[in-house]
């Protein structure tokens, strides 16, 4: 059964809940723990957060283009699992030299951009169908929901890693 479409206030709450869960998952981690590889694949918590910041920025840019152009065109595409893995690796690599503090600041700034954009969108904008660079038809509403779900997905992975570390 299809779920009811979230209105703007519900989307903002969904985004806030996802981010709160992510921040709770990293709460109390030391710099050493944040940079320990193997949390998700070879990635550390820092790299996961860099990945999240990159997707918040990308989603904001994609939605802005989708709203401002009748038939948005993008100068790149992401296709399949390999395409996402390559894009993710490139974005994490761009941020490799950044400190944990810089990554956290970028993540916060990127999410502020998502929130600001969400406030600016009308109900019509939220439901506008478009084809993003990953080629699956979407709407800004769904793209924003995915960002909240992305936070929760990685929060759960970090919490699982933390539980495993406690047992060792």
Percent in helix: 55-70%
Radius of gyration: 16 Å
**Shape, per Cα inertia axes:** globular
Q: How would you state the average pLDDT, rounded?
A: 94
What's the CATH topology label?
A: Four Helix Bundle (Hemerythrin (Met), subunit A)
Q: Supply the helix-strand structural class.
A: mainly alpha
Number of helices: 7
CATH architecture: Up-down Bundle
* Through-space gap between termini: 42 Å
N-to-C order of helices and strands:
HHHHHHH
Number of self-contained structural domains:
1
**Oligomeric nature of the chains:** single chain
CATH level-four homologous superfamily name: dinb family like domain
Taking the sheet with the most strands, its summary is: none
Assign the CATH class. Answer: Mainly Alpha
Structural overview:
The protein has 168 residues and is mainly alpha-helical. The protein has one domain (8-167): dinb family like domain (Four Helix Bundle (Hemerythrin (Met), subunit A)), CATH 1.20.120. It has seven helices and no strands. Helix 1 (8-26) packs parallel to helix 7. It is globular and about 55 Å long.
């Amino acid at each position: 059964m299809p779920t009811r479409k979230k209105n703007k206030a519900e989307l903002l709450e969904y985004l806030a809940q996802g981010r709160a869960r992510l921040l709770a998952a990293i709460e109390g981690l030391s710099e050493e723990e944040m940079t320990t590889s193997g949390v998700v694949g070879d990635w550390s918590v820092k790299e996961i957060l860099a990945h999240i910041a990159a997707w918040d920025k990308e989603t904001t840019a994609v939605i802005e283009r989708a709203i401002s152009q009748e038939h948005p065109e993008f100068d790149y595409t992401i296709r399949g699992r390999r395409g996402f893995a390559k894009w993710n690796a490139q974005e994490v690599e761009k941020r490799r030299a950044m400190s944990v503090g810089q990554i956290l600041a970028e993540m916060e700034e990127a999410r502020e951009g998502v929130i600001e954009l969400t406030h600016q969108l009308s109900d019509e904008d939220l439901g506008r169908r478009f084809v993003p660079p990953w080629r699956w038809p979407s709407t800004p509403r769904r793209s924003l929901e995915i960002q909240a779900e992305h936070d929760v997905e990685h929060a759960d992975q970090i919490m699982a890693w933390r539980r495993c570390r406690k047992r060792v």
